[in-house]
């Protein structure tokens, strides 16, 4: 389906797919990861072998799925997509693995959320290209060994530390994706604007870029919201004032903090006097899942100096107080 059709139907996922870079050369930013991965793939091609298993970690929307697709594309191999939560039994995994052909790339998103038995089956499959399928229960159970053609596993996780050591160790190449710099996001927004046929001015795209939380997925989404605003409230051109007004309307603040980011520092400062407070308590107070606070909001807040992790819990930094327009409490007199 065309990009225009996907957009007309408001199909976010299809639009996102259409905006994905298709080759390593098209990937913006992540220079080190791109160079390292390029080398891994090139070497595998020269040897005529499937590349080593690859683990990609980093917050949502930074390009993990995109890179998995590029790995398959650059190897000329089919890609199979699944996710940790979809693999609840070892049997689910055995079914996927037994259908693989030599050189296929298997992408497992949220690989840290796979069930324990499936995880153990995966160790063996990654290392020996073999699994034991257990038939029956109790004393009569038998393990039937099943050979799997050499394949490449690409695992994605928000934090590599969430994976058990033995699983982590079986990846030959591990890459951590970092938040993007505003100038990199600007290039991404400009590229997407071209593909979406949006009329933009350069200070309009740089405004969107600087308020995108360091995240390409958000940059692409905000571009489309700003375009809506430009069409309805202006003459269709994304200028600086248009971008500013639109982003204010969508509650994306000057520094790119979204509603959850702000809720976290707001609760931390106003309700808990700046902390320290445990992550679970903080999550309950903002009405979100602990995982969402820990894996989505926190990495951005920490990296931008609004929040610090201490052994006793999370604390607000002076920048957080200032950003909320509040005065940090003075240190208690000694
Ligand atoms: P993840 O799997 O990490 O959640 P995705 O790979 O789905 O993230 O990326 C989300 C969106 O951001 C995609 O539509 C893609 O177009 C865009 N994107 C991600 N990384 C890049 C990049 N390095 N260059 C250009 N666009 C990117």
From TrEMBL:
Function: The RuvA-RuvB-RuvC complex processes Holliday junction (HJ) DNA during genetic recombination and DNA repair, while the RuvA-RuvB complex plays an important role in the rescue of blocked DNA replication forks via replication fork reversal (RFR). RuvA specifically binds to HJ cruciform DNA, conferring on it an open structure. The RuvB hexamer acts as an ATP-dependent pump, pulling dsDNA into and through the RuvAB complex. RuvB forms 2 homohexamers on either side of HJ DNA bound by 1 or 2 RuvA tetramers; 4 subunits per hexamer contact DNA at a time.
Cellular localisation: Cytoplasm
Region of interest (Small ATPAse domain (RuvB-S)), ranges: 181-251
Pfam families tied to this protein: AAA_lid_4, RuvB_N, WHD_RuvB
Keywords: ATP-binding, Cytoplasm, DNA damage, DNA recombination, DNA repair, DNA-binding, Helicase, Hydrolase, Nucleotide-binding
Domain remark from Swiss-Prot or TrEMBL: Has 3 domains, the large (RuvB-L) and small ATPase (RuvB-S) domains and the C-terminal head (RuvB-H) domain. The head domain binds DNA, while the ATPase domains jointly bind ATP, ADP or are empty depending on the state of the subunit in the translocation cycle. During a single DNA translocation step the structure of each domain remains the same, but their relative positions change.
Single annotated GO MF: hydrolase activity
Native source species: Nocardioides mangrovi
Protein name per UniProt: Holliday junction branch migration complex subunit RuvB
Source lineage: Bacteria, Bacillati, Actinomycetota, Actinomycetes, Propionibacteriales
Catalytic activity: ATP + H2O = ADP + phosphate + H(+)
Residues covered by the AAA+ ATPase domain: 50-181
Family the entry assigns: Belongs to the RuvB family.
Classification via InterPro entries: AAA+_ATPase, AAA_lid_4, DNA_helicase_Holl-junc_RuvB, P-loop_NTPase, RuvB-like_N, RuvB_wg_C, WH-like_DNA-bd_sf, WH_DNA-bd_sf
């Amino acid at each position: 389906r065309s990009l225009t059709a996907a957009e007309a139907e408001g199909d976010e996922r299809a639009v996102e797919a259409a905006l994905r870079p298709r080759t390593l050369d098209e990937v913006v930013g992540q220079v080190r990861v791109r160079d390292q991965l390029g080398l891994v793939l090139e070497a595998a091609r020269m040897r005529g072998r499937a590349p080593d298993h690859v683990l990609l970690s980093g917050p949502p929307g930074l390009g993990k799925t995109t890179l998995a697709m590029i790995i398959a594309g650059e190897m000329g191999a089919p890609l199979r997509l699944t996710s940790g939560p979809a693999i609840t039994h070892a049997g689910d995994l055995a079914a996927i693995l037994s259908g693989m052909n030599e050189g296929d790339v298997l992408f497992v998103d949220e690989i840290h959320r796979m069930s324990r038995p499936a995880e153990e089956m995966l160790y063996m499959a990654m290392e020996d290209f073999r699994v034991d399928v257990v038939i029956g229960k109790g004393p009569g159970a038998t393990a039937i060994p099943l050979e799997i053609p050499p394949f490449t596993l690409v695992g994605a996780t928000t934090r590599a530390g969430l994976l058990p050591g033995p699983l982590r160790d079986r990846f030959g190449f591990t890459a951590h994706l970092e938040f993007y710099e505003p100038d990199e996001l600007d290039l991404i927004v400009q590229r997407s604007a071209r593909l979406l046929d949006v009329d933009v001015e350069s200070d309009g795209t740089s405004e969107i870029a600087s308020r995108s939380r360091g995240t390409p997925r958000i940059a692409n989404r905000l571009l489309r919201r700003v375009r809506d605003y430009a069409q309805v409230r202006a003459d269709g051109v994304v200028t600086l004032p248009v971008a500013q007004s639109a982003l204010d309307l969508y509650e994306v603040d000057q520094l790119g903090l979204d509603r959850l980011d702000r809720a976290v520092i707001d609760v931390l400062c106003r309700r808990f006097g700046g902390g320290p407070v445990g992550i679970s308590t903080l999550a309950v107070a903002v009405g979100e899942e602990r995982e969402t606070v820990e894996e989505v909001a926190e990495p951005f807040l920490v990296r931008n100096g609004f929040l610090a992790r201490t052994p006793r819990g999370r604390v607000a930094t002076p920048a957080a107080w200032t950003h909320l327009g509040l005065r940090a409490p003075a240190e208690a007199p000694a």
